[in-house]
């Protein structure tokens, strides 16, 4: 198996062959379910007020991957999403722009044309999203197409079937090949934690994706329940923190699906701050995969600045 | 950098009064002892003046309790007693915010702990024991177990309201009446509990609360008309009480100090073990008799674990106890702070490696930054003596046998923790550890259904659960 980057010797050994990889993943410390859920709930009681709340809201807006992944998507829908990404709150020019717009591959060009020169990336899902059930050739072609169309970020799904049946080498190879197909585009690896079920699996899949060269590890497609949860995100944040301790490299985390309110988003940011560390409070290292979250952030931002609540009719639906 | 803005809970919620009086025979009355001033350990300001009991006040409180026992409480059907106890539980919940803020002001513990642990657990102790009041015949102590009479109870300053609940709830459920002495530095929440008890219309004299220092406690436990003594506090005082009671017919339970071992094996869930270690020693500033103050870690993972532990402890926020984001509050008293400093200095002098969090500390008040000693050996004072502060001693072991030997090598035996992914090893360890409570893959979890108590110099008798009823029944 080919390691994508130069790894420290302990980790290079882990990816030497399939059995080494299995030994490494199964040798990771376990995750205690009760403990991680207790810690996540405990950190969730942090009270973020005033200036620190406004800072968190602006930071969260700048971390949003504004997403539309519907069968009913049209070029018109994607164009209006791109407009929203550029000016989330048209009446308030001080609002930061979002990090990226996330669409299906056939919508990439439409989004990319609208976002040229804005600094907002186009992210595309690929690899037979959301199930990942197709052949490698098709997954690679899917990825190459998205990148050719102008995607600067690719959100791939792992083959959960292969992972759950213990074929870690296959999952590893897939990620490595997709990473090559991405070229300069950043690769986010969707673990679909709702199908991996246990925290031990989430930790193993996180390390597998990091070893194979994923720039980001992402919780979910948004098509499976449960999608992102706080404890799952804790486990993934621990993985990137440990990765940095061992390699010096910074990799990112993206919870996606189910984060709808500012209150939720702030709980995630507190976890980023206190579990991974302050340096992860950066759109290059943490993203929210969300659609409805943005408007709640905008409404709360107005509340903070105006001193009274605004309403859903004062922010644009798309 | 993302700095959290201060998020203080309003101190007005505490309904702080300038004066508090003792509660005897259903009324708040002036005590004839020298009044004490209770201070906020986070600011050193005086919170309130509290009247204290003299020896004659102790006598009148015990007499009131005896009258209430003879005339009302011992004759009342359990189902009726239960109604009163349920009422107390509900009132504690109703006034939960007030109690939490007052507790944090008087004790120095962070509001997130008084709000999320102390107050709800106090209420749950009353709820749990209310349920027993009419079912005592099914508790395994005979078909119709009788109460003991008047219980004299002395409680510590580390969980003022919660310890009052631990003591009062089972006593009342079993049909005893109570005279309780709260700790000198933290009398306020017990007196608000007295107010709750008054509003719940408990018959006068069933519960009496008399603040004061050690002499009041001594007078109470020495009173000839007390049938049962329950004490939670230091081992030294516990020994004095046991000596004082020798040869009398009084029944005694003692819940004393501890030097618990928190044992981490190399297959443990490391991130959660780190959380458990932090919770074990920094919860309530380490003012916990069952605190996991000795970390025993398997040598093969010691360096990695200590590194993770330092990183995690650095994120603990030390400061204003009323701030909702504070993790570690104020040390309860100057005296305690001095003791913690003295013991940590001995740790350095004896050659352990000290690491202290670089967190900023407030200018005023009694604060101590979370501290971890590594390279500790069993021979050092910091491994043997109870520090009762945010100071952890890290020792290593090589085999499970060695872990058990080191864990048990203490005159105490209140609690222990075992961290491993192997269920069989948890059971193997639990059988061999001489500790009243063994937590596995968690620490400092309290529940009224689980008996709590110690071995050896950590005391005897159990509180909580079916077993805990025995201490208040004539069996």
Automatic annotation (TrEMBL), chain A:
Question: Do you know which CDD domains this protein is assigned to?
Answer: DeoC
Q: Which SUPFAM superfamilies match?
A: Aldolase
> What Gene Ontology terms describe where this protein resides (cellular component)?
cytoplasm
Q: In which pathway does it act?
A: Carbohydrate degradation; 2-deoxy-D-ribose 1-phosphate degradation; D-glyceraldehyde 3-phosphate and acetaldehyde from 2-deoxy-alpha-D-ribose 1-phosphate: step 2/2
Molecular function via GO: deoxyribose-phosphate aldolase activity
Q: Which UniProt keywords apply?
A: Lyase, Schiff base
Q: What is this protein called?
A: Deoxyribose-phosphate aldolase
Q: Which NCBIfam families match?
A: deoC
This entry's Enzyme Commission designation comes to 4.1.2.4
User: Biological process (GO) annotations?
Assistant: carbohydrate catabolic process; deoxyribonucleotide catabolic process
Which Pfam families did the record assign?
A: DeoC
Cite the source lineage: Bacteria, Bacillati, Actinomycetota, Actinomycetes, Pseudonocardiales
Record field: catalytic activity: 2-deoxy-D-ribose 5-phosphate = D-glyceraldehyde 3-phosphate + acetaldehyde
What family does the Swiss-Prot or TrEMBL record give for this protein? Belongs to the DeoC/FbaB aldolase family. DeoC type 2 subfamily.
EC class: lyase
From TrEMBL, chain B:
Query: What PANTHER family does this protein map onto?
Result: ALDEHYDE DEHYDROGENASE-RELATED
Gene3D superfamilies named in the record: Aldehyde Dehydrogenase, Chain A, domain 1, Aldehyde Dehydrogenase, Chain A, domain 2
What does the similarity note say?
Answer: Belongs to the aldehyde dehydrogenase family.
UniProtKB keywords: Oxidoreductase
**What is this protein's name?**
Aldehyde dehydrogenase (NAD+)
Active site positions, chain numbering: 255
> What would you give as a GO molecular function for this chain, any one?
oxidoreductase activity, acting on the aldehyde or oxo group of donors, NAD or NADP as acceptor
Keyword Oxidoreductase belongs to the record: yes
Species annotation = Lentzea albidocapillata subsp. violacea
Aldehyde dehydrogenase domain residues are: 28-474
